[in-house]
Amino acid sequence: MADALLKELSNTDLDWLIASGERQRLPSGQPLFDAQNPTNHLYLLIEGRLGLPPSQSTGPGVTEEVLQGEFVGLSPLLGLSNDATVSTLSESLILSLPIAQVQAKLKADIDFAAHFYRAIAVMLSDRLRRIFEAPDRIQLWGKRSAKEALAVFRELRDSDIDWLVSFGEIQPVNANQVLLQVGRPVDAFYIILDGQFGLSAPGGSFNALLLCFAGLDENTQNQQVFAQLSRGGLPGIISFLDFRPLPVTVRAMQNATVFAVPRQTLVTKLQVDASFASRFYRVIAIQILELLETICERMASTSANADLNDDEELDFDALDQMSEGAKKFNWMLNQLGVNYG
Description:
Elements: H1 2-8, H2 11-20, E1 22-26, E2 31-33, E3 41-47, E4 50-51, E5 65-66, E6 71-72, E7 86-88, E8 92-98, H3 99-108, H4 110-132, H5 146-151, H6 158-167, E9 169-173, E10 178-180, E11 188-194, E12 197-200, H7 208-213, H8 216-220, E13 225-229, H9 237-242, E14 249-252, E15 256-262, H10 263-272, H11 274-298, H12 323-336
Antiparallel strand pairs: 1-8, 2-7, 3-6, 3-8, 4-5, 4-7, 9-15, 10-14, 11-15, 12-13, 12-14
């Protein structure tokens, strides 16, 4: 992941990180933050090992690790809460950055914001991909809350939604139809407008080429659904960012509708409009981090009877914090001329 950071950030961006951060060499077993001591810093791992302490890992002999070049402590920056505990797993060199200072830089420098949020989204995407490519460690967690999914739309401006509406199209998807196949690239940016989609992954080692050419039925017919996405979800967003083959299959669990923006159209927009790019990549980072945190909570562990009842329907009248996102999502539906109760 060091390559992702160095690839996405400019020399000017890197100079700012170096000038604004504090390098610290920490001993093994040093906690950085936990639920009782939330962080007000971002931590970039330069050398060493970070992750969950072994006593809190997601299964026997399993410890979730952060790779060199990745950040931890992102939840406060993205407006999310996080009960994770992160410690050094060996002697480590980190760069510590005050979140308030990073937030000020993101607000003042649109180019930096576009680069930084994309780097964060790519890092989180890779972290999630590593889990998806080891599906035996994942438990069913039920449908993601539509309230959570719609929340990210509050980050977008009306002009952003206008642009998406202008360049995308509505696509119906029949029940049991595969929208995105494991091992294949993703050709569009998808938003779920209505219905539910199941995520599944093949067992065993992940071989994208074999999965791609094995055939659709052989690839997907015996895959167990381990997650569900609903209104406002962004299926396939992992591979949209890094152009790598999709590590999961996305299949409609009922008749559904998606909104699709061609990949190259959106990529061009992101390259020429830094302001739009900064908001778009922040949205992606938020949704991927939410997915990542949810999956990490439900990965295979000694808790075989985890609560899987996450399938409450969204009550728009009861939305408080997420109301702005829901309003913008509904406004997008109105712009598209569709109405799903």
